[in-house]
Please model this.
Amino acid sequence: MDGFGWAIMGLGTLLVLVVLLDVFLAVLHVNRSGILVPYAHRGVWWLFMRLGPRRGSARRRLLALAGPTMVTVGFLIWVGVFILGFALIYWPNLEYYRAEDEFTRPLGFSAALYYSGVTATVLGYGDITPMTLGLKILAFVQSGLGFGLLTGIVAYLLGVVNGVTERDVLALRVHSTTHDTDDGVHALLRSLQCEDIGDTRLRLDALVGHLHEFQEKMRKLPLLYLFYRSGERRHDPESYLQVVVEMAAAALLLAHTARYRRLLNVAEDLAQATGAVLELTAAEHLGAPFAARVRQPDIERLDRRWVAHIRRRLTKRLGAGSAADADDVPAALRVAARGRLVLQALEPRTRWPLDHPCRYREAG
Model:
């Protein structure tokens, strides 16, 4: 075998190792989503956003296909690169294979690609067979890895389906607390006026738990959690991110008064959980420098107006003195600023204000 043959085999080995590492990270690693697949997902979403309708029901129906398309493209990349990699390994060694008469002699790359495909999928027709022990062992290795790859694809698919289902359930829970308004302040007011403070604390504490679950799932499937859309607008992640930001800011304003002091611990927990989800969203989708801005945001006039608007709504319904001034609760301004930064940055990527009210802008 000449130097070109060794180079081809080295390239094939590299492709196989990259695919195996990608599948390992995507399926088994807790905090990673792969190497190849995230780029494929971003590319698919970019195409859907650029080539689809700008607004209307047709836009939602098209975006609902983006998630399944992402998953399908990811699977095709895994299987295709895996088969191609082994084909490049087999290609320089085809002189050591026996083939049926219907194959053109000498065997070329198409024969290597065919043999790699039937071996990877554990079909093994026997029309091309290796004649040396080393190549027979290599075929056995590819068959085993191919079976593991297909098993990994099934596990990944189940994880995607379960993860997106859990995300949608969380979205519906948050949506239901707002009485179909997607308004976090309304949800908190409704709880305080219909329940006692203890029940409101339990409700907010449950929301904190849901946000922690959402954070862990999003860490594993960040792209799918944001871009795997359904035809139902209530499932959109930006909607409930805005709701929980409003609820956290409103709870902090209330908790810094004597009347609602019992809400302080859970309000701080909610603000912390909301901030963690916003930071993760920024880190995964908007880049590390932007995530640093979200971690330590600059309070802008728009944030002060948003929190002041929330305070006016609280005092109007609950009475004077029921909510602290925005300047007296820096944590409320901070969570509002973090939410505004992330939601603003997601606007050109998902165009979510086409389907939902953008209250931080309305307040300004």
User: Anything to note?
Assistant: The two ends are 71 Å apart (CA to CA). Strands lie at 97-99, 128-130. The domain at 3-154 is CATH 1.10.287 (Helix Hairpins).
